[in-house]
Amino acid sequence: MDYLYKRIYCKCGGLKNRGLQIHPNLGISMETRKRKKSENEKEQGAFFGLNQKEIEKGKKPAIVQSRSCPFYKKIPGTPFTVDAFRYGAIEGCSAYFLSHFHSDHYGGLGKRWCHGPIYCTSITARLLNICLSVNKRYICALELDKEYEVGGVKVMLIEANHCPGAALIHLRLRDGRTYLHTGDFRASKSMQSHPILLSYHVNVLYLDTTYCNPKYRFPSKEEVIDFVVRTTRKYLQKQPKTLIVVGAYSIGKERVYLAISQSLQILPIYTDASRRKILESFGWSELSGRFSNSRHSSPLHVLPLSFLSLENLNKYLQTLNQRFNAVLAFRPTGWTFSEATGSKLDMIKPTSRGSVTIFGVPYSEHSSFNELRDFVKFLRPEKIIPTVNVSSSGSRDKMQALFNNWLNS
Length: 409
Prior knowledge:
By secondary structure, this protein is α/β, with parallel strands linked by helices.
């Protein structure tokens, strides 16, 4: 078998980020495949209330409402919800908004979706169809920066600076109230000059609070990309037969490996068929002709973030028939950020073993603490509803104290 790692796909073909498994024989036995399938079916059956006999007979679980939709996914005064697909048909909801194509936001969507129209960007709309087989009749693609009227509410999607197709959702109600739901986003100075955000005061802000903690003050995307390119150039000068590996989600982190390819003239880029299908759906001209399905002919490989370990990459290198002598890998995620390093990226110490070196670089597609603070102070909303890390009252109280401080300063 030509593959070192097992890809774990979502229900209709999209690559999940739940991890990969190395096998001594570089493959997976049929027995293991059957066992895993059986375990998954039992798990899904139990979730939807099927008993063992029904599972064995091949009865398919019906999509039902398993739990109530959290309040922060509902938009008061409207029949709208945001990223609330795993709750089935939601009472009073006639329009379901999807901020972006990450599984923790689109969970619950698939070819059996029939509960109402899904409003999203054009890129996300294409991904819903090609990766999840959502029926096109339920997909309503909206252009960025264009105002629409949905159910009497003025709606505009704004670039979220997150993954391709991600959007902020700006809503103007008939009574004059204005809501902004950020989905997942990375706040930027350019957002502070957006006409709609300058024109209408935001009453309620639904805020992505992934890094709402003072310790997360990581550098800009541009600074991290510059460090990645400089580091790659240095390693290739020292050892030209170095394989460059960039970890990525099924969607996200594209700018990191594109910057390496464009700055250092490295072509082609190897990705698996599933990722190429997703990339092609973006319609980006800079992607044309850059990708290959041959691992042996490409010096730049894009692999799942969860695969990037010293052991896995060493085994991966061995499968390339001595085409390369070393591996330089990058794990681009905000969770690699270190307070000790801060913005001094040259102080990052990689992990190495033998011919494999891995750099964890704080490239995040979520807002840093400072960026969140500046965005809130720019908008000065009347109310802020955090959407991440809200499970405990202690966490919510800490964030609320921060919000109050920002708004009163």
